């Protein structure tokens, strides 16, 4: 140590009957010789400084000429000098009336360089390390940065990454700090095992957690990368899964991740203890607050006697009751659930006790860790703000909302004492995650307006510029189709929970007997009425062109006769071909084509009731939507279109993960003031009854689909995991039965019209669903069981899938 080399010289100075104090780099004062009492200092000399001004060092020493200086003053001066981070060593000694301050300055970091990194970009690593340009170099900090870089690589599945650091001197006592990375091979999860689970199989529990075993498409996903924090998060997910299905005594005994270094693979074993399954017993509301009638609040209960116990329903009830009593003016009332287990009947009775809580206020809400997301995006998820009454239930509900945004890997909400006994500081700690997606998908759709090979490219950002806004740009390409779209949504329009946005689109299709080109857009707003009920309003405008302006001759697929794709009749006797205009065999369609382009200006509204447990892969709950579209605010169309659809999902078997779905829908379109255009009808087929082509059912004229003014449909389906196939591949099987009808045209008395009456179509079949990295894909095989002679059937269909 440099300080030790100075001690010998200091001893000789002590022989001159002066007091000598030396402080080493570790900051411990040593009285070398002379009397112990403090003595006055006449001047301060600074040595060893190159960049730091001597006056700056003197100001940090905080000793003035004439001041008595002892060991305590010297120790404090050394501490202050080291605290600046500018010096690697500090030595203070005294000879007579002179206080000598000797320093060794830290080298300054000229630049921080990363080498060998491909999986993690320089910008991401720069945000990970503490060493930065123009700051003093610190070896301990650099070693800590090495570990931080290794941890970052572990999170992306590179547990065997090797990181080293070295310094390269440059002029003026500066250094370049170089972190060299050997990324190694990807470390994946080979196997996830569960021990102690009886109510649910391994496959079902693997679907619950986020971590996945490496599959054949592992190169397209990142869920097969082990991360300790993600495993801890999965533990909490498992607890909530069991707690919401009656297992109130569930606990995780252990979760162990073992790395096979030779194979560079993780093996995870999660041991659980399920306990008994409970149902709700008696449900009571007890109030100790004068003026609050517990019985009057029973409509706020989400828990029902006899239902399977669910912690989530208890939480929802707490929020409902808390909001209800606050609305009555009792801001400090607290709702506490008290459970009473009956082990003989396996029931849990719940007493919701309403007490007058302590008067505590939110002093402030501190947001930490948000490097991208703006503070106000996080704050607006809280139903409380600075100065409001503190309520733990509402604070935890805000945490759940923040997690549901999918902006953050982790959200932790804690509290700390405020400046006064009745003040509370709410601390929100978040860890950002990627919110942008670039998607490339492809497939082959059959039987529809956009039949044939299709590809779609889209860029989606869920947290645009950190403002919480949703933006999506997409482009689709097919053999005979083109489509482009732009969507934008502001989830908090005008500072309220109003989701407002717009959509712009353009599409072209040349696959049918006539071309279709559409350009349009909409302005929309959605307002939540309750947690499950939402109202939507929109203004819509589109322009549609039907037909082909190129004069290309088309052939009738039945007779082979030519259709002249031009409007007007060049022969007064109508003898050209079959008479012009002849796009199709249907005079109704031909007339409508010649009247295009059309413009439609409309307003629409809808109510949506949604209690699905998972929006992407539902197993329980309802989705019901009903709405109307009114056209006639300008444009060429005047109609009232009413539609409704509903789906119910139910988990038929937890053990085998069988999901049942019942769906139904209906629609009617009615002219307002004039005739209804044929292209304003509903055109239906495989979208309501599988086993039929797009536009495969309903009224026809000379074999050409006219659509219908009314439709109804119903469907029953069961989906299940495929046996002998790992669930990590994302495949599920389906068995279904469909029924429906499409009927009603403006003038059914015209020549050649068939199928204008209600006639039921039905089919049954099986399907294969794949939750692919490109989106949900599905192939169906359906056999029509009830059909009309003029219908168009198609047993196989393939395309993108939607569950509801």
UniProtKB/TrEMBL annotation:
<dbReference type="Pfam" id="PF01103">
    <property type="entry name" value="Omp85"/>
</dbReference>
<comment type="similarity">
    <text>Belongs to the BamA family.</text>
</comment>
<feature type="domain" description="POTRA">
    <location>
        <begin position="360"/>
        <end position="433"/>
    </location>
</feature>
<keyword id="KW-0472">Membrane</keyword>
<dbReference type="InterPro" id="IPR010827">
    <property type="entry name" value="BamA/TamA_POTRA"/>
</dbReference>
<keyword id="KW-0812">Transmembrane</keyword>
<keyword id="KW-0998">Cell outer membrane</keyword>
<keyword id="KW-0677">Repeat</keyword>
<comment type="subunit">
    <text>Part of the Bam complex.</text>
</comment>
<feature type="signal peptide">
    <location>
        <begin position="1"/>
        <end position="22"/>
    </location>
</feature>
<dbReference type="InterPro" id="IPR034746">
    <property type="entry name" value="POTRA"/>
</dbReference>
<dbReference type="Pfam" id="PF07244">
    <property type="entry name" value="POTRA"/>
</dbReference>
<keyword id="KW-0732">Signal</keyword>
<feature type="domain" description="POTRA">
    <location>
        <begin position="107"/>
        <end position="184"/>
    </location>
</feature>
<protein>
    <recommendedName>
        <fullName>Outer membrane protein assembly factor BamA</fullName>
    </recommendedName>
</protein>
<dbReference type="InterPro" id="IPR000184">
    <property type="entry name" value="Bac_surfAg_D15"/>
</dbReference>
<feature type="domain" description="POTRA">
    <location>
        <begin position="187"/>
        <end position="275"/>
    </location>
</feature>
<comment type="function">
    <text>Part of the outer membrane protein assembly complex, which is involved in assembly and insertion of beta-barrel proteins into the outer membrane.</text>
</comment>
<dbReference type="InterPro" id="IPR023707">
    <property type="entry name" value="OM_assembly_BamA"/>
</dbReference>
<feature type="domain" description="POTRA">
    <location>
        <begin position="39"/>
        <end position="106"/>
    </location>
</feature>
<keyword id="KW-1134">Transmembrane beta strand</keyword>
<dbReference type="InterPro" id="IPR039910">
    <property type="entry name" value="D15-like"/>
</dbReference>
């Amino acid at each position: 140590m440099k300080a030790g080399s100075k001690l010998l010289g200091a001893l000789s100075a002590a022989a001159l009957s002066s007091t000598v104090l030396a402080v080493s780099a570790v900051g411990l004062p040593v009285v070398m010789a002379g009397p112990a009492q403090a003595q006055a200092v006449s001047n301060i000399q600074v040595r060893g400084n190159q960049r730091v001004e001597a006056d700056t060092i003197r100001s940090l020493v905080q000793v003035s000429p004439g001041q008595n200086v002892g060991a305590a003053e010297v120790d404090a001066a050394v501490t202050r000098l080291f605290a600046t981070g500018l010096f690697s060593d500090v030595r203070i000694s005294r000879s007579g009336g002179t206080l000598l301050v000797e320093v060794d300055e830290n080298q300054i970091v000229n630049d921080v360089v990363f080498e060998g990194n491909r999986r993690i970009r320089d910008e991401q690593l720069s945000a990970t390390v503490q060493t930065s340009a123009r700051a003093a170099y610190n070896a301990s900090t650099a070693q800590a940065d090495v570990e931080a870089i290794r941890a970052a690589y572990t999170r992306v599945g590179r547990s065997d990454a090797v990181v080293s650091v070295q310094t390269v001197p440059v002029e003026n006592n500066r250094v370049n700090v170089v972190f060299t990375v050997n990324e190694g091979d990807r470390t994946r999860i080979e196997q996830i095992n569960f021990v102690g689970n009886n109510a649910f199989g391994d496959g079902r529990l693997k679907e619950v957690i986020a971590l996945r075993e490496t599959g054949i498409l592992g190169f397209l996903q990142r869920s097969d990368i082990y991360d300790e924090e993600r495993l801890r998060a999965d533990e909490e997910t498992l607890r909530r899964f069991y707690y919401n299905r009656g297992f109130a005594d569930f606990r995780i005994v252990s979760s162990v991740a073992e790395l096979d270094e030779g194979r560079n693979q993780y093996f995870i074993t999660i041991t659980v203890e399920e306990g008994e399954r409970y149902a709700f017993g008696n449900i009571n509301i007890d109030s100790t607050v004068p003026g609050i009638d517990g019985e009057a609040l029973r409509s706020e209960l989400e828990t029902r006697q006899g239902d399977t116990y669910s912690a989530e329903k208890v939480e929802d009830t707490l929020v409902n009751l808390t909001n209800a009593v606050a609305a009555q003016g009792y801001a400090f009332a607290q709702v506490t659930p008290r459970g009473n287990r009956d082990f003989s009947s396996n029931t849990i009775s719940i007493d919701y006790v309403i007490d007058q809580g302590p008067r505590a206020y939110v002093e402030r809400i501190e947001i930490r860790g948000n490097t991208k997301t703006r503070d106000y995006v996080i704050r607006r998820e809280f139903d409380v703000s600075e100065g409001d009454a503190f309520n733990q239930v509402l604070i935890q509900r805000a945490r759940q909302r923040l997690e549901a945004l999918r902006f953050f890997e982790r959200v932790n909400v804690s509290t700390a004492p405020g400046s006064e006994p009745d003040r509370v500081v709410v601390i929100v700690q978040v860890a950002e995650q990627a919110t942008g997606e670039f998607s490339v998908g492809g497939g082959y759709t059959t039987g529809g307006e956009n039949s044939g090979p299709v590809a779609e490219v889209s860029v989606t950002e869920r947290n645009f510029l950190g403002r919480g806004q949703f933006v999506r740009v997409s482009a689709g390409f097919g053999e005979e189709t083109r489509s482009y779209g732009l969507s934008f949504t502001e989830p908090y329009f005008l500072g309220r929970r109003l989701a407002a946005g717009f959509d712009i689109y353009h599409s072209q299709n040349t696959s049918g007997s006539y071309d279709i080109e559409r350009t349009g857009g909409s302005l929309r707003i959605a307002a939540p009425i309750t947690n499950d009920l939402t109202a939507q309003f929109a203004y819509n405008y589109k322009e549609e062109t039907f037909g082909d302006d190129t004069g290309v001759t088309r052939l009738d697929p039945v007779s082979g006769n030519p259709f002249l794709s031009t409007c007007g009749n060049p022969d007064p006797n109508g003898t050209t071909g079959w008479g012009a205009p002849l796009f199709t065999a249907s005079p109704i369609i031909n007339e409508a084509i010649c009247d295009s382009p059309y413009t439609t200006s409309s307003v629409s509204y809808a109510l949506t009731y949604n209690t699905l447990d998972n929006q992407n892969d539902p197993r329980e709950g309802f989705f019901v939507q009903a709405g109307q579209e009114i056209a006639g605010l300008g444009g060429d169309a005047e109609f009232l279109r009413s539609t409704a659809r509903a789906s119910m999902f139910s988990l038929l078997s937890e053990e085998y993960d069988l999901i049942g779905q019942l769906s139904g829908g209906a629609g009617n379109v009615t002219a307002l003031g004039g005739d209804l255009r044929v292209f304003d009808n509903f055109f239906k087929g495989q979208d309501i009854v599988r086993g039929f082509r797009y536009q495969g059912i309903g009224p026809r004229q000379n074999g050409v689909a006219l659509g219908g003014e009314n439709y109804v449909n119903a469907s029953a389906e069961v989906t299940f995991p495929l046996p002998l196939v790992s669930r990590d591949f994302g495949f599920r099987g389906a068995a279904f039965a469909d029924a429906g009808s499409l009927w009603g045209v403006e003038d059914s008395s015209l020549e050649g019209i068939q199928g204008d009456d209600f006639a039921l179509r039905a089919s049954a079949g099986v399907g294969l669903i794949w939750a692919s990295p490109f989106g949900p894909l599905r192939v169906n095989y359906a056999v029509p069981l009830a059909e009309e002679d003029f219908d168009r059937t198609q047993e196989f269909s393939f395309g993108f899938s939607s569950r509801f």
